[in-house]
Amino acid sequence: MPSASLPRLATFLKTAGPGLVVMLADTDVGSLITAAQSGARWGYSLLLLQILLIPILYVVQELTVRLGTATGRGHGELIREHYGPAWAWISYGGLVVAGIGAIVTEFSGIAGIGDLFGVPRLVSLGLPALLLLGLVLTGSYRRVERVAIVVGLFELVFIGLAIAARPNVGEIVTSFAHMPLGDGQYRVLIAANIGAVIMPWMIFYQQSAIVDKGLGWDHARNSRLDTLVGAVISQCVMGAILIAAAATIGKAGQGTKNGLETVGDLAGAFTPALGPWLGQAVFGVGIIAAAFVALNVVALALAWGFGDVTGKAHSLEQSPREAPAFYGAFALVVVAGAVAVQLVPNLVALNIAVEVMNALLLPLALGLLILLATRALPEGKRVDGAYKWVVYAVSGVTIAFALVGVLDAVGLL
Fold first, then answer.
1. pLDDT tens-digit map of 18-54
2. Would you tell me how many other CB atoms lie within 10 Å of the CB of residue 155?
3. What is the CA radius of gyration of the chain?
4. The CATH homologous superfamily of the domain defined by 19-409
5. Domain boundaries, the chain
6. Residue 352 burial (10 A CB sphere; 0-12, 13-18, 19+)
7. Which of 147, 160, 212, 397 is deepest in the core (most CB within 10 A)?
């Protein structure tokens, strides 16, 4: 590597983190199960959507980079400042709805893995909750970020699982030309996949993480690269789980009408290639890693968001004594999520419903994000010119597809 490149790499590595962490959290339990259900039910035909979502995901999260580095303020705080407390609370309400659904699905995924190996739920739910509370209540932002990245990279096992499933490349390419858009159930999964990739808590988390890490406008370029790398990794993992499920359970589009019913069904997709024990173990590692990172990100997004809209202290660089409301909100959602999972009967159905709900929240989340990015920043930093119209077009098309799927889900189409 040329010596001139080493300082740039060092600078990037110091800046990187918020984008990568939020993207690793994006491939949470709900997202992975949605992708797996897509493969089990429709073969490879939804893989093209995962590819198309890479630039869409980047465009959305780049706006949070722009806002965070330019203002040094969290998302909810900017909404409160520019549009008043009512809109700040409305936005936070959407975050709470999406966040509660995500927290429950993450714990449900961990519990499902525990059930596969006969681990009592008191242990499978209690242990990760205690580890998460210990990490956040006793650590700094950088420590929390490093642990999240190390744990989250275990999600890359899904790429290995996809290779082990030996998918037919010819069938994958052919599937791109056969997308049954006239089928309502197919459109529901389009909405679910969009909702699984673009979620309100990602916007709140990344902007606040940038602020907590102390990144400014001079870090914006590296923060954008961090976001792009994370978006590619995120969608590679989503694509991998879809391919693995399609090549096994789905049999290239010949799966059962309902696809997956339980986490055990999904784990079973990998037993032909790796054997029953190793397949379940590798799958379990990936799911637990995804769930742990997402729990951390979603709970922090809710805690940061609460601080934004109330004006109370909210930083990982402050102690629990200095920011009691922030740490209290974090602890509350973690503990409540673990307890609530005891009441969840069907993990797969729950996950699909949560992702469709995320799609329904897109107009609110993206609308306020775009308003801030185009109007709340000074000249030279705001979104304008041709790129503004790219943002409008990408967001409009994404919302339209998402809402059509939502209407299908509730039986209005």
1. 999 999 999 988 888 888 888 888 889 999 999 999 9
2. 26
3. 20
4. Amino acid/polyamine transporter I (1.20.1740.10)
5. 19-409
6. buried
7. 212
